[in-house]
């Protein structure tokens, strides 16, 4: 990990002026990851167009008894974050022409969100069910399935194979300030003056 970070000192998020204003995100969970507590990891990420603007990877507060429960807890957290971002759009008066989209790779979690009947086996996560379904029925978002190989949120919690890791990394719009053609103007500016703490549209991670 340290060796990888040492080789990525110039990587940062690039926010293009030509990016669309469509808001969409990815929700995922890594079930029973912690070997000490067996708590799962919630992870999600949200984009405005091609720009990554919000992400999270955090251990869940309680132990999930199944992978479906872990996925649904993550989906509920992502729904709350999507709601907050939509409020932020309204406050900033940013028009959104398309419905907000949230991708999830758990078919079971999607089926629970679409089912208005709470079965006996899902009563222990009924609060999360209400949160997601209420926002879904209100038209806040559109839940869509996605394959695990295209789940961008996986990069925040799992050790992915090199090919998949670099593929997902490129989709996060992470650019290297020392190598990317998009940063040529910034590099020329830095060569003419001393570096400052502000770096144009590049935000270091």
Short key terms for the protein model shown above:
205 residues, alpha/beta, 22% strand, globular, disordered C terminus
Overall description:
α2 (67-91) crosses α4 (126-137). β3 and β4 form a beta hairpin. The protein has 205 residues and is α/β, with parallel strands linked by helices. The radius of gyration is 19 Å and the shape is globular. The relative contact order is 0.18. The protein has six helices and eight strands.
Question: Which SSEs are present, and which pair or pack?
Answer:
Elements: H1 2-6, E1 11-14, E2 23-30, E3 41-48, E4 51-59, H2 67-91, E5 100-104, H3 107-114, H4 126-137, E6 141-145, H5 162-171, E7 174-176, H6 184-192, E8 202-204
Parallel strand pairs: 2-5, 5-6
Antiparallel strand pairs: 1-7, 1-8, 2-3, 3-4
